[in-house]
Amino acid sequence: MDLGLAFLGYLFLDGLFLCLAAEHEITFDLREKVVTSLCNKSESLLLVNESYPGPTLRVRKGDTAYITVNNNGLYGLTVHWHGVKQPRNPWSDGPEYITQCPIQPGNSFTYKVIFSDEEGTLWWHAHSDWTRATVYGAIVVEPAEGKLYPFDKQPDGEHIIILGEWYNGYLRTMVEAAMRIGADVAPSDAYTINGQPGFSNDCYIENITIFEVARGSTYLLRIVSAVMNEEMFFGIAGHNITVVGQDGAYLKPIPTSYIMISPGQTMDVLVTANNSIDGHTSYYMVATPYSDSGGAPFNEKSTSAVLNYGGLIYNPLYPEFLPDPKNTEAADAFTKQRKALATEEHPIDVPQEVDERIFITISVNLLPCNLPDGEKCGGPGGNMHASTLNNISFQNPSVDILQAYYWNLTASTAPPLPFDTDFPAFPPVPFNYTAGDNAQYQFPSLGTKVRMIEYGQRVEIVFQGTNIGNPENHPIHLHGYSFYVVGRGIGNFDTDPNYKHDYNLIDPPRVNTIGVPKNGWVAIRFKADNPGVWFMHCHLEKHAIYGMAGVLIVKDGDNDQEKMLPPPKDGMPKC
């Protein structure tokens, strides 16, 4: 394992830490490995550095990391650094066919990962279909040298907690079989904490993750949701927790007994090991799924780990307070509490005015069955599943959008663009988005469409959930930016420009992934000051693979510091 300038490795129960300095070189070696989990089930998984989950990247605010990915696997893939804004550097953002072509088996590519104002917990993962189910790990961005955490008490230690999923069977084969007939991919067989399902799945002690703590000490829990398709409630028996950050930015402290976290999100949580209930020295931490979907199947089992005060683990206490999987009120109650820390040392800069307004509907749709010889499709009514933004199901091009866009800007001759620049700022056909019967809007159009945005524009995007198909909460992730969540509601958003919405423009949370509530809306704002090609998509893989995605292209500004960086000197992977 080549870790470049410096390596300090500590194999904890919660992961492999790669400790970095200001500018470093790291190697990710991808290859298949047989892993045993879920009551001694063995599967061949694609892993990074033979670690499941993968290695944790530890940097300080403002660092740069050069990460060489050697693909010794069986298929092409890319890696995305989720929540890292990559200022002016979309070349290393990672989404397949958006900013690069896949790294083919036997080939390598070096990502230049530029950290800017992020501080807290982020994560990295493969960005090629469902490959992220096993190719993922945490990113820890510590305060700049000499700075402290903005907490009343500095933590005595930390643990990294990554929520994930385990599938019995070779997942790539399962996904390809489902997509060929337009069907849903079967739910996972277990949720996991740091790769292990825990006692909730009737497995042995070897199948549970143990986090050791010292009585009286306070720990920073860095929680990542690498779950594929479900939001999760999380809590620890006998302990209250305090949420202090999300998506690499600090929040005003939220004392709570549980959190609700969506796929793609990260949360920083403080817990003090100060309980002694009926002599217990071991306590279960449990994550259980939350789904507000009306009919989509999902795995309702929980996953668990143990918070242990030292010594033998005996009869851990189980939490009795976690909400049930359909408790929308509990999910909303937690989500509404989030506000930015917004201090002099950690300021926010939410746009007070707007130059460009974009209104995007989110729908789960259908396409007519196109299989030959009367073969049946796997979606409702014999159709094929589809998903859309503004009734357009995004189609991946055969060459990546970024290179095509860049060479058309800089070269005297260039091939035709593999995309259209007419992604609509509003739905093509306005309708009652949350009405009971919207079946006439189920069949969408297909396209590879992008939205062009002038540099420096103050942008507001409203994501509107619809009652088409099977409505549910959709975690939307925007690459290249953190954005301010200024408003949220249930029902139809009022698009009348004269209507005054009750926005929070003082201390809205700054995040990179936001859950759009079922039959509701979310309003976000950001300044378009990071030029490049940036992907925007639902972080439920079952929707992303069927087209719930789009692309924002932020144009170059006038001076050099407002323009995209040129591509790497060694070139990009070939399609």
From TrEMBL:
GO cellular component, one term: apoplast
Pfam families in the record: Cu-oxidase (PF00394), Cu-oxidase_2 (PF07731), Cu-oxidase_3 (PF07732)
Keywords: Apoplast, Copper, Glycoprotein, Lignin degradation, Metal-binding, Oxidoreductase, Repeat, Secreted, Signal
Reactions listed under catalytic activity: 4 hydroquinone + O2 = 4 benzosemiquinone + 2 H2O
Needed cofactors: Cu cation
Entries under InterPro entries matching the protein: Cu-oxidase-like_N, Cu-oxidase_2nd, Cu-oxidase_C, Cu-oxidase_fam, Cu_oxidase_CS, Cu_oxidase_Cu_BS, Cupredoxin, CuRO_1_LCC
GO MF term set: copper ion binding; hydroquinone:oxygen oxidoreductase activity
Catalytic class of the enzyme: oxidoreductase
PROSITE patterns membership: MULTICOPPER_OXIDASE1, MULTICOPPER_OXIDASE2
Record-listed E.C. numbers: 1.10.3.2
Domain Plastocyanin-like: residue ranges: 32-144, 158-311, 423-557
GO BP term (any one): lignin catabolic process
Predominant place of localization: secreted
UniProt subcellular location: Secreted, Extracellular space, Apoplast
Binding note for cofactor: Binds 4 Cu cations per monomer.
Region forming the signal peptide: 1-21
Gene3D superfamilies: Cupredoxins - blue copper proteins (2.60.40.420)
PANTHER family, per the entry: LACCASE (PTHR11709:SF410), MULTI-COPPER OXIDASE (PTHR11709)
Reported function: Lignin degradation and detoxification of lignin-derived products.
Family note: Belongs to the multicopper oxidase family.
NCBIfam families assigned to the protein according to its UniProt record, in alphabetical order: laccase (TIGR03389)
Record protein name field: Laccase
Gene source species: Quercus rubra
